[in-house]
Amino acid sequence: MFTNILLLTSIIVCILTLVNCDRNNVVCNRAVPYDYLTLALQWPSGVCIGRKDGCIKTNDTFLIHGLWPTYKNGSWPDNCCYQRQFDDKNVRDVESRLKEVWKTLFTTGSDKSFWTHEWKKHGTCASFFDPFKGQSNYFVETLRLYDQADIRKWLSDKNIKAQPIESNSGSYSQSQYHSAIESHTGKKIRLECRRVPRKFSSQPVLSGIHLCYDPRDLKYIDCPIQDDRDCGSNIRFLGAK
Ligand code: AMP
Predict the structure, then answer these.
(1) Whole-angstrom Cα distance, residue 114 to residue 137?
(2) 70 in ligand 1 pocket by Cβ < 6 Å?
(3) Cβ atoms of residues 206 and 235 within 8 Å
(4) pTM
(5) What sign does the CA torsion over 97, 98, 102, 105 have?
(6) Which distant-in-sequence residues (6+ apart) come within 8 Å of 4 by Cβ?
(7) Whose CA is closest to 22, among 120, 142, 93, 117?
(8) Residues annotated as part of the active site
(9) pLDDT higher than 90, residue 100
(10) Is any ligand 1 atom within 6 A of the Cβ of residue 188?
(11) Which residue from 96, 28, 102 is spatially nearest to 67, judged by alpha carbons?
């Protein structure tokens, strides 16, 4: 009888913990181990060129797309805890920084809806490793990793500079991008490009960069997926008008 009561109490406590996990900011029970973290950065001019539904105007600076728990084969866990809602109270201390570097590019969305999406899909899965326990930590640690990687400067130091589309210049080889960045990280990165109509560019344009980390110590690792998505041997680095 006593054992049954104990069992029933444990079940009720478990259910209550799950239901409350958004409010209490506790670690989600469904957190799963993953192999590495991908910091996905976007280059606004490359993401926005030729987009029909338009982008919010922004400076030439790399922006955060997200920090994604990832498996070695390139797939990823997602939506690991449906109960945990994004609550902007948890990011109040860093909100102004998020608005600068993790902002929406698209006129159809808001910063908050973008953070909510990234949190639900990826952030809820990150908490298996200590630095990412709690919603606030996920955003703070992502900003910290972002701040360590001054990619625009690293490129510019090697004379890789974004040029406005009219200038018809600003094309660099795939290996130039790699070596400019990898000379700082010591590890392989992944490029992302877009192929756009010829009237914009006959070469693929740089739209993003992925940096990869070991979630145990947050040191750079070689990105396991090295396909440089949609890039070619020469890549345009477009600047804002
Ligand atoms: P993910 O699901 O994390 O791979 O991100 C893809 C989703 O994020 C898509 O719905 C995109 O429309 C959205 N997205 C990507 N970049 C941005 C951005 N800068 N601002 C707002 N939404 C974005």
Answers:
(1) 17
(2) no
(3) yes
(4) 0.88
(5) negative
(6) none
(7) 120
(8) 65, 118, 122
(9) yes
(10) no
(11) 102
Give the nearest ligand 1 atom to 40 CA.
3
Any residues with CB less than 8 A from the CB of 239 and at least 6 apart, and which? 45, 60, 161, 162, 163, 164, 170
The CA-to-CA distance between both ends of the chain, in Å, stands at 75
Q: Residue 218 C-alpha to ligand 1 middle, in angstroms?
A: 24
Q: Which of 37, 57, 65, 104 to mutate to test the pocket of ligand 1 (most atoms within 8 A of CB)?
A: 65
224 within ligand 1 shell (Cβ under 6 A):
no
**Can you spell out the DSSP letters for 178-207?**
HHHHHHHHSS--EEEEE---TTT-SS-EEE
Contact 181, 220 (CB under 8 A): no
Q: How many residues are there in the chain? A: 241
> Letter for the amino acid at 198?
R
Among 1-10, 14-23, 49-58, 94-103, the range with the most confident prediction by mean pLDDT is 94-103
